Amino acid sequence: MHLTNYSINKNQANFKQNTEANPDEGHKRSMTSVFERMRSEGVDIEELWSDIKKMVLKTLCSVQPIIKHHYKASQPEDYYQHMCFEILGFDFIINSKKKPII
Predict the structure, then answer these.
(1) What is the value of pTM for the model shown?
(2) Contact, 66 vs 88, CB < 8 A?
(3) pLDDT score, position 1
């Protein structure tokens, strides 16, 4: 429904902050809140979450060789690969058929 960037939107005049008293209203909601709403609309959240996890796993498997290559190129003296790690983030859009798209 919305493609937003919280760090930009929080400075807008019509931004509505979430509160602990009412976490289901506002511009930044938790996954729990979103999933509960989707569940109330008939979405099988367990299936959706399973699909998301499969997509993340397949993506990680596909990028592992290039990540390994870049690591070895930037840290050639680290024979045991203990010097650093990567943090990867994933963005998903849920389409009108309630299927995740990475």
Answers:
(1) 0.70
(2) no
(3) 38
